[in-house]
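G., the chain you wanted modeled:
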Amino acid sequence: MSSSIKLSSPATREFWEIPVLFEDEHILALDKPSHLLVSPDRYDPARANLMGLLHRDIKRGASWVGNLGSSYLANAHRLDFETSGVILLAKSKPVLIKLADQFGIEKPSKVYVALVHGTPTEEEFEAAFKLSPHHAKPGLMRIDQDHGKKAKTRFRVTERFSRHSLLQCQLCTDRTHQIRVHLQRLKFPVVGNAQYGGHPLLLSSLKPNYRFKGDEPEKPLIGRAALHAVSLEITHPVTGASIRVESPWPKDLTVAVKYLRRYAMYDGAFTPPERGV
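Predicted structure as tokens:
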């Protein structure tokens, strides 16, 4: 297979060139872009999604399919619509089952980077709040210590800014929206994630004497939840070898951090999230 897969959706006039991060005859790891669903949306089945586009191209024999070696392809886990980074696919049902078994145990194997509001006082901390679907907001999750499913996330501060921080997030369990809900409860919501208390990161809030361009609304430095699946470690389901797959930071996160480093360096003081977060 080539080093990337080109997918398109004529219905929505969208195009994606998705890098291949790892591949052998049993598994395929892709670098999922933000703003692309992994699987069909139960509330809007017509929206473009990664698995639907891949299966469509396999069926019609697209050029990238030539070296795939299998007509079977299934995602072993999921990433949210706005989240970018490593997504792992299985090329057979037995491999899928073995991967699912690995992801089902409480062992940190997925690492994310998150840009959050506020500056934690501790270098490392964790959250172990149980989660369940939000009863009043379909598609969202909430803390539910009485009836929710066990969820645990470990966090480590990798860089601090005046009002924001970069965190490394390790999943010990893999629940829907786990990182975002846990960080909201800890009062360090993910930048750009309005559903769970985050606000956009604007250059005007960082750069002194920022000049607005006429009446045009300012575009955020990162226009989505600032969450990226940066690495994934597994035991190969067939060979038993230890496999680590890494995804480079996407451009929007790189740009946001560049401006934070330029205009918002950490001064050593604890900073809670901005008002309203």
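The two ends are 45 Å apart (CA to CA).

Shout if anything looks off.
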